[in-house]
Give the backbone structure.
Amino acid sequence: MTVVLLISGSTRSASTNTAALRTVEALAPDTVDIRWFDGLAELPAFNPDDDGTGHPSVLALREQLSQADAVLFCTPEYAGTLPGSLKNLLDWTVGNADLYEKPTGWINAAAQGRGEGAAATLALVLGYVGADFDPDSCARLPVARDAVGPDGLVATTEFRSGALETLTKLVARVAV
């Protein structure tokens, strides 16, 4: 069983990024154990002096990352880059090599013409922390707000097939 940790870069309750990852979870085959890190808003601001203090949300993040075979992100773009809360999460991974050589990927659910700054920054930071990411495990799959159904899942066939393909490619990299 491959454990994939899903991390949404959005703290909004009606986030299309979170809906995109919920859809990935719904589509995941039985051979994939999907888990969520949902403590993004609870993480304290990164401070290298506090890196060993054991804040509960930081400990939860590190525990979930250590149990995951792969990580899949989906994040909005704020002011041309990653949301501060997601960058903060990534900063917490630097000192402990939590993402080092871990297969990672992402889904860019932003509308055409948006999201490229967030994707470029995510690639830069994941490269810096030594994560194992491959462009084949990353996809641009725009999600319009009206594409999210009342069940909180993305309903479009194009998104669903692309999301499943992205997950499949990410999981295939775990075995390599």
